[in-house]
Write a structure and sequence with these properties.
Structural class: alpha+beta
Number of strands: 21
Strand content: 25-35%
Largest sheet: 8 strands, mixed
Strand order of the largest sheet: 7-8-6-16-17-18-15-19
Helix content: 25-40%
Distance between the termini: 79 Å
Shape: globular
Length: about 525
C-alpha cells in the first residue's frame, strides 16, 4: 500500500509528487521509490516526446529550470494562499508560511492609524463580531503619536451634548477598565485615573457662556457645580481670584490618567481577541469608481476601495491588502488618505478639514505649588495646568492664537512660548508659580478640525467604504472608548445604537455648517 504526498523543492519551490510506503523496504528500493517525479506539463512543439516539464514554469527540464524568478514563485504562492482562503472561509490557515512582518493578503476591515482611537475601533469591532480586523500603524514605537504626547485629561465640561455624552460614557468605561480590557493571566490595567476634576475659570464676559454650558452639562447627567469667586477662594486658597467672575468645577468622572497605559491596554486586549497589527504606512489604494450625474447636472464619482497598499518600514517592499472597508483613524494626517483617493483640495469633492496643529506641553517643578487637592485648572486666559505625581511637579501649557500657530514640520519645542505665554498666566493665577523650574517638555499634534473643532464620525460621501473617526481637536483620547463603540455600531449595525452621533457626520462638512464647541482647550 502506498500514499501520495505533495512537497516542494527546497531550492526552487517546484511541486513534487512523492510516494510513501507503509512497509519497510530495502535501502536501494527505498531510494528508488523516493525519487521525485515531476508532473508533466503541456508539451510545446520543440519538446521531445515524453519530455518532462517543471510545474512552476511550464518550461522544459534543462539547466534554466532552476533559474525561476522570485517574482514567479511569490505569485504562485500568493495564488495558492488565496485558493486556500476561498476553500476555508473564515479560517486563518495558510498552506505555506507567511512572513509575520507582512500584513495579511486579505482581511475584512483595515483600520489605518494605531493610536487610541484606532485600537478602540478594532477592539469594539472584534467584541461585536468575528470580522477580521487589521490595524496599520507606521510607528509602533509611538514616539510621535498624539495619544501618548497628550496631557491625558478627561472632562464632561463641554457645550455640545454629543461631547458631554461621549466623555461620560468613556469615564464609566475607564472606571471599570479591567472588566473591559483585562486579559487572562496578564497584569491588571493600572490606568492611574486621578479624579481630581476640571476647574474652568471665567471673567465677566465669559460667565454667561459658562452658565449656558453648565445647564447643558447638568441636563446630560454630568456632575458639575458653579462657584463664585469667594467660594472658589474658600475651596482652593492657593488661587488668586483676580478677574474671576465665575468658576465651573467637575465633581466626579473628571481628571487625568496615563495615556500610554490606555493605548497599551486597548492594543493588548484587541490582539488577544484576534485583531492583527502591521507596522507600515498606507501609501495608496486600489479602488473602482461609480459615476453618475446628479439632478443638478453635477457629475458624481464615488470610490470603492478594493485593497490598501502598505509600505513596509525601512524598505521598498509594498504589500497590497484586499479588504471590504477601511476605517480612517489616522488623526492629524487623515486628510492624506482621502487625497490618495483623489478627494480633497484641488481635487474632487470637499476636502476633509483636518490638519495637524502643534501643541507644547511643559513639565515644571514647584515645591510650594498647589497640593493634592489641585484639579486640572483651565484659566480664562487659556493657560492650563495639572498635578503630575506627588513630588511638586505639574504639567502646563496653552493653545496659541490662530495667527501664532507653530510650524508643524517638526516636533521641536519653542521655549519662548512658555516664557512669553504660559508662565505669566500660571504666575498670575497661582502666585507660588512665580518660582518654578521647567524640567521637561515635548510637543504633539492635535488632529484639528478647522471647521468646528469637533470629531468627524461616519462615512465619507465620495468613498463608499471609508469610515471616518478623526478631527477630535484635542479630545480624542478621552472620547476614544465611546467613539470606538460608535464606529463599530455604524459598521456592523448600520447605525448608531448607544449614542446618537449623526450630527458629527460629514454632512455638516459638505454644507459648511459648523457645529461649534465652545469649550476647546
Amino acid at each position: 500500500m502506498s500514499a501520495r504526498g505533495v512537497s516542494a523543492c527546497s531550492s526552487c519551490g517546484a511541486s513534487l509528487t512523492v510516494r510513501f510506503f507503509s512497509a519497510p523496504a530495502a535501502p536501494a528500493d527505498m531510494w528508488r521509490s523516493l525519487q521525485p517525479k515531476l508532473r508533466p506539463a503541456a508539451r510545446s512543439p520543440a519538446a521531445p516526446p515524453g519530455g518532462r516539464r517543471g510545474l512552476s514554469t511550464g518550461t522544459p527540464l534543462r539547466s534554466g529550470f532552476f533559474k525561476v524568478t522570485t517574482a514567479d514563485l511569490e505569485a504562485q504562492l500568493s495564488s495558492m494562499r488565496r485558493k486556500a482562503v476561498e476553500a476555508l472561509p473564515g479560517s486563518g490557515w495558510s498552506p505555506l508560511p507567511v512572513d509575520s512582518a507582512l500584513p495579511p493578503e486579505n482581511t475584512d476591515i483595515v483600520v489605518v492609524g494605531g493610536g487610541v482611537v484606532g485600537w478602540s475601533v478594532a477592539y469594539w469591532l472584534r467584541k461585536k463580531s468575528r470580522v477580521r480586523v487589521l490595524v496599520v500603524e507606521r510607528d509602533l514605537t509611538y514616539s510621535r503619536a498624539s495619544t501618548v504626547l497628550s496631557a491625558g485629561g478627561i472632562r464632561q465640561q463641554f457645550s455640545l451634548p454629543e461631547n458631554i455624552h461621549l466623555s461620560l460614557a468613556s469615564a464609566h468605561f475607564l472606571k471599570d477598565i479591567n472588566s473591559h480590557l483585562g486579559v487572562l493571566d496578564q497584569d491588571p490595567v493600572d490606568l492611574q485615573f486621578n479624579q481630581g476634576g476640571y476647574l474652568f475659570l471665567a471673567n465677566e464676559k465669559q460667565a454667561p457662556v459658562m452658565e449656558e454650558n453648565y445647564t447643558a452639562q447638568r441636563a446630560a447627567g454630568a456632575q458639575v457645580c458653579l462657584l463664585s469667586a469667594a467660594q472658589l477662594k474658600q475651596r482652593f486658597p492657593w488661587i488668586s481670584t483676580e478677574g474671576v467672575a465665575l468658576a465651573s468645577y467637575g465633581l466626579e468622572n473628571e481628571g487625568w490618567f496615563d495615556p500610554w497605559t490606555l493605548l497599551s491596554a486597548f492594543r493588548r486586549k484587541a490582539l488577544s481577541m484576534g485583531v492583527q497589527q502591521c507596522s507600515g504606512e498606507v501609501t495608496g489604494f486600489n479602488y473602482s469608481i461609480n459615476a453618475w450625474t446628479s439632478e443638478d447636472g453635477e457629475p458624481i464619482r464615488v470610490r470603492r476601495i478594493r485593497s490598501v497598499q502598505v509600505q513596509m518600514p525601512s524598505s521598498l517592499q509594498k504589500q497590497p491588502v484586499e479588504c471590504t472597508l477601511v476605517v480612517n483613524a489616522a488623526g492629524a494626517f487623515s486628510a492624506r488618505l482621502l487625497e490618495m483617493l483623489g478627494v480633497g483640495a484641488g481635487m474632487e469633492g470637499v476636502p476633509l478639514p483636518v490638519e495637524p496643529r502643534k501643541r507644547f506641553v511643559f513639565v515644571v517643578h514647584c515645591p510650594d505649588g498647589p497640593g493634592l487637592d489641585s484639579p486640572f485648572l483651565i484659566d480664562q486666559s487659556g493657560v492650563y495646568f495639572r498635578r503630575e505625581g506627588l513630588g511638586g511637579s505639574y504639567i502646563a501649557g496653552a493653545s496659541p492664537e490662530e495667527a501664532d500657530e507653530p510650524d508643524v514640520r517638526d516636533l521641536e519645542v519653542d521655549h519662548r512660548f512658555f516664557e512669553d505665554r504660559v508662565w505669566p498666566g500660571l504666575a498670575a493665577r497661582v502666585p507660588a508659580f512665580e518660582k518654578l523650574k521647567v524640567t521637561s517638555s515635548w510637543a504633539g499634534f492635535y488632529d484639528y478640525n478647522t471647521l468646528d473643532q469637533n470629531g468627524i464620525v461616519g462615512l465619507h460621501p465620495l468613498a463608499a467604504n471609508m469610515y471616518l473617526a478623526t478631527g477630535f481637536s484635542g479630545h480624542g483620547l478621552q472620547q476614544a472608548p465611546a467613539v470606538g463603540r460608535a464606529v463599530a455600531e455604524l459598521v456592523l449595525d448600520g447605525g448608531f445604537r448607544t449614542l446618537d452621533l449623526r450630527r458629527f457626520g460629514f454632512t455638516r462638512i459638505l454644507q459648511q455648517k459648523p457645529l461649534m464647541e465652545r469649550n476647546i482647550v
